[in-house]
């Protein structure tokens, strides 16, 4: 426990002092703000034109300006953007040790390597979930300010479960990003992997095989393409869990056994 | 504890390349062991193997009586290290970088950070971000991290790198004080041979992955080659007369003649007499002995042939 707390302290300090996580968080806050803008436009398109928010030639969005639409938009943003945002945080936390050549300071220590990477994973998870919570909170404030109809306690609960559930299902898949940031000794291989998985997740969802593809499952859970009971089965959760276990096991194995020449 | 460091047939291969080849080292407690080698000779690979950062292809490594095994196992709380160029988290201050090291080293004494900052002379940089430090100060930060937990064994890769001449002297004195005062064992690689010459009590030379020689510092005098160096205003005449007398001659840069024969080294007066008779009176005549640098260069050149 002492090992883990030392690792957590170190990782938290590195995260708090770094600008990268703040920039990624700032970028992600664009999601609820964009959602709010769409609500304003959908609520009164003519007023939006008059205010200059949209061009008279704009293709007006279809849909309604209400709470279910706003929560749906946030769910989609977390499903699509979360995969990239969490990956960026993971790439930073793991990849920087190789880019800055600091990894060699984490290897021959009384604090075991396992404690150090567990601390990294915990900090990544806490930071990612915090950002997702902030986005959800900003979404609530924006919805109140725009004053859209359709609010209910049940909708709030379901949307919260959907959005945070999507985040929770996405995070274990970051074990592969951590592995590639480490084995690839830098940022680029892991970034390439992230782009590839996002692309394949979309493709598999379009082809109707998303419930079998681990990287598509969090997006389907968000409810972006329909009720989750229709698009996901038990097998989906089993596949996601098994894939995540493989990712974590491979990451720990690599840190314990691979030659460290950086 | 018999040895502070003990390797048996330590080898490391990267595909076709044999980076370290059957190196068997024995470093006694309290020794300052200078580990010499050209670039790519296998110094850093050996050091990484000692620290469990790479797994040997063959052989074994023991430090402070404990096997360095897979999964990074080893007596790391008793070892301080500095591997290759020093590194630090650039956005953290010097003190924060050391605080991270203190916690990961499980040191409960919070004052240890301040003490090591004072000791390495980086107090005025303590609140500076590591990313803004000069190479020399970054090196001091790396040394501070290595000394933070007052280790029994220091494994240092090029500890004088980036330091100014005053810094080199300061670190030399610090290492000497640690070994003499506290019995710390130091294993250091260096390309500054004069530093090793002044500091090391034992020297190992690695070349193309093989440990080609180990010697005590005192032994250098006994095994170093001696030669007679001659300068004269009439080099051609000197050259001819010495050649006729059967000496083996090699010319040196700066228009001097070097005789390696024992009879020349043992009887320089006879050489002087021959030169005077030939009208090539010596302007300089001295028996010189190769220093560590000469010895190292001769040895590595011989092994390269």
List keywords for this structure.
heterodimer, A: 262 residues, mainly alpha, 12 helices, globular, B: 305 residues, alpha/beta, Rossmann fold, Alpha-Beta Plaits, 2 domains, 6-stranded mixed β-sheet, 5-stranded antiparallel β-sheet, elongated
Structural overview:
The complex is a heterodimer of chains A (262) and B (305). Chain A has one domain (2-20, 68-134, 147-257). In chain A, 74% of the residues lie in helices and 0% in strands. Chain A is built from twelve helices and no strands. Chain A has helices at residues 2-17, 20-28, 30-43, 45-51, 67-99, 113-146, 153-170, 174-183, 188-207, 217-221, 228-231, 234-257. The longest helix of chain A has 34 residues, at 113-146. The model of chain B has no long low-confidence stretch (mean pLDDT 89). Chain B has eleven helices and 15 strands. A six-stranded mixed beta sheet of chain B has the order 7-8-9-4-10-11, sandwiched between helices. In chain B, strands 1, 2, 3, 5 and 6 form a five-stranded antiparallel beta sheet that branches. Chain B has a four-stranded antiparallel beta sheet with strand order 13-14-12-15. In chain B, a hairpin with a 2-residue loop joins strand 1 (5-14) and strand 2 (17-23). Chain B is elongated, with a radius of gyration of 24 Å. Chain B has two domains: 5-221, P-loop containing nucleotide triphosphate hydrolases (Rossmann fold), CATH 3.40.50; 226-289, Alpha-Beta Plaits (2-Layer Sandwich). Chain B has 305 residues and is of the alpha/beta class. Classes of the chains: A mainly alpha (262), B alpha/beta (305). The A-B interface holds A 2-3, 6-7, 9-10, 13-14, 17-19, 100-102, 104-113, 116, 256-257, 259-261 and B 48, 51-55, 70-72, 74, 76-77, 79, 81, 83-85, 87-92, 96, 99-101, 103-106, 145.
């Amino acid at each position: 426990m002492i090992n883990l707390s030392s690792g957590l302290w170190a990782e938290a300090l590195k995260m708090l002092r770094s600008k990268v996580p703040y920039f990624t968080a700032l970028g992600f806050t664009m999601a609820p703000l964009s959602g709010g803008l769409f609500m304003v436009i959908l609520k009164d398109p003519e007023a939006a034109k008059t205010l200059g928010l949209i061009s008279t030639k704009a293709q007006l969005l279809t849909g309604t300006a209400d709470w279910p639409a706003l929560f749906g938009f946030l769910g989609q943003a977390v499903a699509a953007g979360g995969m990239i945002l969490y990956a960026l945080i993971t790439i930073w936390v793991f990849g920087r040790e190789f880019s800055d050549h600091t990894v060699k300071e984490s290897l021959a220590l009384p604090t075991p390597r396992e404690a150090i990477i567990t601390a990294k994973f915990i900090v990544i998870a806490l930071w990612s979930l915090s950002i997702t919570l902030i986005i959800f909170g900003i979404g609530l404030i924006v919805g109140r300010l725009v004053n859209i109809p359709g609010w209910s306690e049940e909708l709030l609960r379901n949307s919260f479960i959907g959005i945070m559930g999507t985040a929770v299902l996405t995070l274990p898949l970051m074990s592969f990003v951590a592995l590639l940031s480490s084995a690839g000794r830098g940022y680029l291989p892991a970034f390439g992997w992230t782009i590839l998985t996002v692309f394949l997740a979309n493709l598999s969802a379009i082809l109707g095989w998303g419930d079998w593809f681990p990287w598509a499952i969090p997006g389907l859970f968000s409810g972006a393409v329909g009720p989750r009971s229709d698009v996901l089965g038990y097998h989906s959760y089993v596949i996601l869990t098994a894939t995540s276990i493989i990712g974590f096991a491979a990451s720990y194995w690599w840190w314990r056994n691979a030659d460290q020449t950086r | 504890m018999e040895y502070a460091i003990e390797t048996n047939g330590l080898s490391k291969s990267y595909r076709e390349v044999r980076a370290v080849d059957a190196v068997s080292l024995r470093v006694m407690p309290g020794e300052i062991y200078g580990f010499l080698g050209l670039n790519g000779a296998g110094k850093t690979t050996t050091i990484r193997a000692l620290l469990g950062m790479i797994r040997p292809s063959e052989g074994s490594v023991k430090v402070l009586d404990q096997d360095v095994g897979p999964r990074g196992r080893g007596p790391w709380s008793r070892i301080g290290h500095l591997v290759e160029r020093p590194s630090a988290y650039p956005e953290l201050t010097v003190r924060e970088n050391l605080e991270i090291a203190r916690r990961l080293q499980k040191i409960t004494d919070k004052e240890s950070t301040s003490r090591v900052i004072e000791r390495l002379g980086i107090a005025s940089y303590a609140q500076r971000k590591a990313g803004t430090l000069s190479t020399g100060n970054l090196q001091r930060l790396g040394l501070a991290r290595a000394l933070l937990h007052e280790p029994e064994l220091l494994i240092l890769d090029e500890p004088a790198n980036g330091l100014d001449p005053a810094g080199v002297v300061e670190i030399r004195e610090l290492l000497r004080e640690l070994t003499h005062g506290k019995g710390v064992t130091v294993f250091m690689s260096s390309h500054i041979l004069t530093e090793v010459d002044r500091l090391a009590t034992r020297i190992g030379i690695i070349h193309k992955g093989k440990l080609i020689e180990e010697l005590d510092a005192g032994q250098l005098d006994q095994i170093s080659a001696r030669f007679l160096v001659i300068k004269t205003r009439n080099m051609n005449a000197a050259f001819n007369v010495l050649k006729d007398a059967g000496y083996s001659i090699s010319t040196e840069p700066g228009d001097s003649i070097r005789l390696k024969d024992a009879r020349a080294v043992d009887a320089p007066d006879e050489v002087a007499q021959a030169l005077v008779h030939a009208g090539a009176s010596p302007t300089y005549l001295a028996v010189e002995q190769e220093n560590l640098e000469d010895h190292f260069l001769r040895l590595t050149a011989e092994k390269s042939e």
